[in-house]
Each structure stands twice: as structure tokens, then as C-alpha cells.
Design a protein that fits this description.
By secondary structure, the chain is α+β, with helices and mostly antiparallel strands. 40% of the residues lie in helices and 10% in strands.
């Protein structure tokens, strides 16, 4: 129960929607790639997170190269 209380609490969880809205506010031409990290394995999925955030960005006329940083392995390399 403590986990659910923390996630549902005001300071314990950044929703996919909030993440998308934040990215829409702070994105700029120099931002090349975003790793979504620390996704809850119990309350979220990489596919859902990516889709929700992409939808929000598209509504704001934006596109970003994004991936999800897996918890159990090294993330994909990003070369600039």
C-alpha cells in the first residue's frame, strides 16, 4: 500500500501526460533526443508512455526522437 500511496501522491509520480506537457514547454531546436527513464514496471509500459507523449507533442506541432531507457539493460546509444 505504501507504493500506491507514493505513486498517487503529489510528489511521487510524473504521469505520461505531465511529462508530455513539460517536454512541449521546454523543447527547443537544440534538443536532439529524449530518453524516457524510470518508468514504473507496474503502472506503465514503454509503448503507452511513448504514444501518450508523442500525441501531446504532435498536438503542439512538435516531434522529438525518443526512446525508453530500460531498467534491466543499457539504453541504446545516441550519436550526435
Amino acid at each position: 500500500m505504501v507504493y500506491k500511496q507514493r505513486v498517487l501522491g503529489r510528489n511521487g509520480h510524473l504521469s505520461n501526460e505531465s511529462c508530455g506537457q513539460l517536454l512541449a514547454q521546454v523543447a527547443h531546436s537544440g534538443l536532439k533526443h529524449v530518453h524516457l527513464a524510470h518508468l514504473s514496471s507496474e503502472c506503465n509500459s514503454p509503448e503507452v508512455a511513448l504514444q501518450v507523449i508523442r500525441d501531446i507533442l504532435e498536438k503542439n506541432g512538435m516531434q522529438l526522437d525518443m526512446c525508453v531507457a530500460p531498467q534491466e539493460m543499457i539504453s541504446k546509444a545516441i550519436v550526435f
